[in-house]
Amino acid sequence: xxxxxxNNRELTTSLxxxxxLFEGIFKGDATFVTxxxxxxxxxxxxxxxxxxxxxxxxxxxxxxxxxxxxxxDLSQQIDNENLLDELQYKVIAAxxxxxxxxxxxxxxxxxSGETLFLLEGYDTALIISSQGWEKRTVxxxxxxxxxxxxxxxFTESIKVNLSLVRxxxxxxxxxxxxxxxxxxxxxxxxxxxxxxxxxxGIVKELESRLDKIDIDAVLDSGYIQELIRDEPFSPFExxxxxxxxxxxxxxxxxxxxxxxxxxxxxxxxxPFILAEAGQANEDYYxxxxxxxxxxxxxxxxxxxxxxxxxxxQAIVTFHQEMLPTQLLLSIxxxxxxxxxxxxxxxxxxxxxxDIVREAGIRMPAxxxxxxSIVGTLVLGQAAVEAKLVSAPVVIITALTxxxxxxxxxxxxxxxxxxxxxxxxxxxxxxxxxxxxxxxxTVHLMSIRSFGVPYMLGVTTVRDHDGQDIWxxxxxxxxxxxxxxxxxxxxxxxxSGKDRRKRWK
Length: 504
Fold this sequence. Notes:
- By secondary structure, the protein is of the alpha+beta class.
- The protein has 15 helices and 12 strands.
- Strands 1-2-4-5-3 form a 5-stranded antiparallel β-sheet, with helices on both faces. Strands 6-7-9-10-8 form a 5-stranded antiparallel β-sheet, with helices on both faces. A two-stranded antiparallel ribbon has the order 11-12.
- Helix 9 (288-317) runs antiparallel to helix 13, helix 9 (288-317) crosses helix 14 (411-446) and helix 11 (342-362) packs across helix 13 (391-406).
- The longest helix is centred in the last third of the chain and has 36 residues, at 411-446.
């Protein structure tokens, strides 16, 4: 463990010794502030507050803690025999106060932005909630913009994020469990679920995996996402992530558990299945026919993004008889004078496209768009004119790139599978392509996410299993939650027969 325990050091009844203790612990930190003050009517009320500048709300500190203790005539209002309790219950105006004598607990609270209140003659301290650091306002997330639907998104404040979910789920069954992860950062995390919907095994397994994390720092939910996932060497994500409150609320209502991490706008959800990668929150706000078309486009595009280059390579190199004569002659004419084999041309152009894509993301928005458009056009045109690649290869590369970006949830998967399928097709033609497809399917069938099959609902259409996978069925038909995930309470709404009785 990296954390240095301070259990061998304890608070005393001497105010100056206690102040010296904490000044020694935070020695060299210029933001650590100690403010001594004493009530002018009661000399026994000799106090001190300790806090970190920039982490507390100064107005709350002055108006609710220092001024009430400093100016009131405490000699007439409180009992001197139990002064600390009297100050806590009758003088200090704060919505959350706890008493502690544990040094580790006190240090963790002060570092988290709370105020430490020390009183002469007492070996316990008050930890007063007074956090007030700057935070980003709630706005629509850049990574998940919609035409129709809520515009709010998570921020870096865990309490703000929880409030955004509570606004949507006004159910006393919504349970929240806090814990800290990271021996140095002491990052606050929160498990959130709806009691009666989530399976107990999922919550217990999530808690078990979190308890096994022994790391000194957690700066984003991505740290935890990688540490608790199933199949760590697979390109397929088994832990979901979203920065939209409506998405997280819908996952909770289906029986999943969510993990909030302070300082991260991305909230994790478990279990996560493959079907979720093709879904978008806007699917549930638009007409079901339009949503189903869009979902089919996203799913088909994700498959084509890693199969099109491999199929082109296999057919052009090994199975030319599968092409119409005119098309084969056209491709051959375009390849005339190109010294590089088709497979190397495809690899080169796909890598260049990924370089341009990454550069466009990392650069400022206006410059990034320019790089993406101009870089792609100029490089593609120059490569064709210089006879380094053929025009069909540029077309396949551009089509593959567009299909890849159509589904942001599967970008990593499509990039990895694209090169694997292309390598298999380059060596064994269409047989290599089929073999790679079989291996990928077997791998997907073997994956579990917190005990739930990763391909849940993808290969079946019976009952309600296929209603929210390849398409989005009308709301009046989706009466049940996903099986296995929402097994404890499958009923989501009244059936059509029951509704017709109500309408009559």
